[in-house]
Amino acid sequence: MSEPAVVTAAILVIGNEILSGRTQDANVKFLATGLNEAGVRLKEVRVVPDDEVEIIEAVHALRKKYDYLFTTGGIGPTHDDITAATMAKAFGVRLLRHPEAVERIRVQCERAGIELNEARLRMANIPEGAELVENTVSGAPGFRMENVYVLAGVPMIVEAMFASLRHELTGGAPVMSRALSVRLGEGTIAPLLTEVQDRYGDVDIGSYPSYRAGKFGVSVVCRTADAARLEACIAELDAGLRELGGTPEEEDLG
Amino acid sequence: MSEPAVVTAAILVIGNEILSGRTQDANVKFLATGLNEAGVRLKEVRVVPDDEVEIIEAVHALRKKYDYLFTTGGIGPTHDDITAATMAKAFGVRLLRHPEAVERIRVQCERAGIELNEARLRMANIPEGAELVENTVSGAPGFRMENVYVLAGVPMIVEAMFASLRHELTGGAPVMSRALSVRLGEGTIAPLLTEVQDRYGDVDIGSYPSYRAGKFGVSVVCRTADAARLEACIAELDAGLRELGGTPEEEDLG
Q1: Is the pTM value of this prediction over 0.90?
Q2: A173: left (phi over 0), alpha (psi -120 to 50) or beta
Q3: How far is B150 from chain A (nearest CA, A)?
């Protein structure tokens, strides 16, 4: 059997509001989970301000390094929404009013009983050559330029856009994961984890301490694209944790 | 009056668990808020895997570009905690067992009635020349190398470490912010925002749509280090939004 191809992605969050601490990002966790299910491994996230130079630099770096890049934020109708114009600059193409995007925004305005003004039409300005990404929530589309998907910032719209583009993604073997949680200290289980990790080089074993109800516990998460190895690794960890006096419980990762 | 100095920072999140979608990051919002209050502007965030090459590349890029870099995650006792060793490599120094760190971990183990084993002592391995950052929650310290603060990943410990290091930060003028929320569409208020932003180039005006109870609304956030300009800008926006038929309400940003 040949090694399954690894397909990678990055996310670029364009958002002063995340950097100021005003807003808690909610899109990374959603996209990370969805990409993983599609067999695409999220390898990096960057958050940059609404700044043309910073955005262009990050787009170039990330889209070269990974198979896919997803951006979130900055495609609305206001002065601080500079993503579409910036993306056109990054790709060296013109920003054009896209007739199909105009139509979708027009229909949405009519439905909502709001005026189709110049600000709203600005959301139909799309880099030349881009494919639209459907927005079933509020009409104004995202778009794809080569390997870069440009999405909204509002989580509900990001989710709708991802649902509409997911079938376009070519993933590799999806990574499966299982996790055991146990009320033992990380320092207590560390030698066991090292020993099992040494024998399961193809399984990514992570140890994540938590602090609940005044006691430290730990989640041991195993990730691999090989179902049989995953099961064997979890079984060894379970036995080892019991030997250390723990009562490991399988976590629901759904 | 001379322009107040702008002091900048970046955060590097070291965490497979964020990239897999398993964990929702909680440290960025906390640190962003705390830094802002200290007069330090968070300009970039990166999330990278527990991978030596990726961490070193990001540390070099970010610590050169910004005044401060804060890393979170990867300083525990298990095999996947590679931050301290990687940081020593990044700075070209040795990783040494730090006597004061050993003592703090020993005291904590004694207090908690747990064994001071080799895995726990591993948390006392600190790059040569680093200053310790106190951890009042679980003993094992973070550390500072030049302009890089290396913190834990568990939010409660990050908060404790930030509290203990905050007095060391040299900030510029703190950015103040005020926000109005209004039940108008972004497309409706966009021309007003553009017009006010043109006259208040020194105020950063951001527009953030939200979707609550089935209706779109928008938060208009103004940020600047100049209190008088902030007040004037908010007053103009308030008047303009009322002219457009809205009933703006001041948001509590605390």
Answers
A1: yes
A2: beta
A3: 17
pLDDT in tens, B111-168: 989 899 999 999 999 999 999 999 999 899 999 999 999 999 999 999 999 999 999 9
The pLDDT tens digits of the residues spanning B77-105 come to 999 999 999 999 999 999 999 999 999 99
pLDDT digits (tens, 9 = 90+) for A46-69: 999 999 999 999 999 999 999 999
Do B87 and B150 form a contact (C-beta atoms < 8 A)?
Answer: yes
Beta-carbon contacts of B227 under 8 Å, excluding residues fewer than 6 positions away, are: B176
Q: Flag if B194 and A78 touch (Cβ within 8 Å).
A: yes
- DSSP assignment of A194-219 equals HHHHHH-TTSEEEEEEEEETTEEEEE
Kindly state whether B8 is in contact with chain A, defined as any CB-CB distance less than 8 angstroms: no
Whether the Cβ atoms of residue B143 and residue B126 lie closer than 8 Å to each other: yes
| Residue B175 in contact with partner chain A when CB distance is under 8 A | yes
Task: Tell me if chain B has a CB within 8 Å of the CB of A45.
Answer: yes
Catalogue the E-assigned strands of chain A: 7-14, 40-48, 68-72, 95-97, 125-127, 131-133, 142-145, 148-151, 176-182, 204-212, 215-224, 249-250
Distances (CA, A) of A239 to A207, A236, A244, A245, B71: 17, 5, 9, 10, 34
| Whether the predicted pLDDT of A96 surpasses 60 | yes
